[in-house]
Design brief:
Blueprint lengths: L1 E6 L3 H11 L5 E7 L2 H11 L3 E4 L8 H7 L5 E6 L5 H9 L3 E4 L4 H12 L10 H11 L12 H11 L4 H8 L3 H15 L4 H12 L17
Parallel strand pairs: 1-2, 1-3, 3-4, 4-5
Helix pairs in contact: 2-3, 3-4, 7-9, 7-10, 8-9
Length: about 220
């Protein structure tokens, strides 16, 4: 069972998300909150698998809340913006994925399942835009890819292409559990919080940027 916490200051949005998710046999909404402080506090108490996080919320914004939840739960950002400064901030904070609040119900459900499995939500359709934006606005943070084993470098390249753990396993002829372990070790060695950051780093290094190059989706209503 995938345990989900929904954080959004718009009651109608929360109700809609909860209604969609609770219709799935493998997903349980364990709590819903209306601000970032409550999201952090409740996540610390209940340890959900996934937090669906709005960006603009009172008391504590979704980006700051995402940063505080690193290592506690995987955060899936929901925003109304296709690409903007808030999304970049969430990427740096360690968000595992992004969806637009206008996404359809099936896409939202599948996104929750992907993130719960440890996969990142990296959409090839916006990769170049994200790489370009990070190249223009991010301070380079060079990382030594030499700390990775040859296999971990292959895994990093797969992550940068947006492959899930299952797809990495098939491509590199290993079990899905082994692929997940390689991804975790690769992130740890590079000091990264999420697969999205790994994709940004890989893309940035191949584009001459010291860091980052993702492809993801976006999401969030009132902000």
């Amino acid at each position: 069972m995938i345990r989900v916490l929904v954080a959004d200051d718009h009651a109608a949005v929360r109700a809609g998300v909860v209604l969609i998710l609770e219709g799935e046999a493998d997903i349980e909404v364990i709590a819903e909150v209306a601000d970032g402080e409550a999201a952090v506090r409740t996540a610390m108490e209940t340890r959900p698998d996934v937090v669906l996080m709005d960006i603009r919320m009172p008391r504590l914004d979704g980006i700051s809340a995402t940063r505080e939840l690193a290592g506690v739960a995987d955060v899936l950002i929901l925003t109304t913006f296709d690409l903007d400064e808030y999304v970049f901030g969430a990427l740096r904070a360690g968000a595992a994925g992004f969806l637009l609040k206008s996404t359809d119900a099936d896409a939202l459900i599948q996104a929750v399942r992907l993130v719960a499995r440890g996969d990142g939500l990296i959409s090839p359709s916006v990769t170049r835009r994200l790489i370009g934006a990070f190249a223009r606005t991010s301070e380079p943070e060079p990382r030594d890819l030499g700390v990775l084993t040859p296999r971990e470098r292959e895994v990093l390249a797969c992550v940068a292409r947006g492959l899930s753990n299952a797809e990495i396993a098939r491509e590199l002829d290993m079990s899905e559990a082994t692929a997940k372990t390689h991804v975790s070790r690769m992130l740890g060695k590079l000091g990264l919080r999420s697969r999205v950051q790994a994709a940004i780093l890989h893309g940035g290094s191949h584009a001459g940027v010291g860091r980052q190059s993702p492809a993801s989706r976006s999401g969030d209503p009132g902000g």
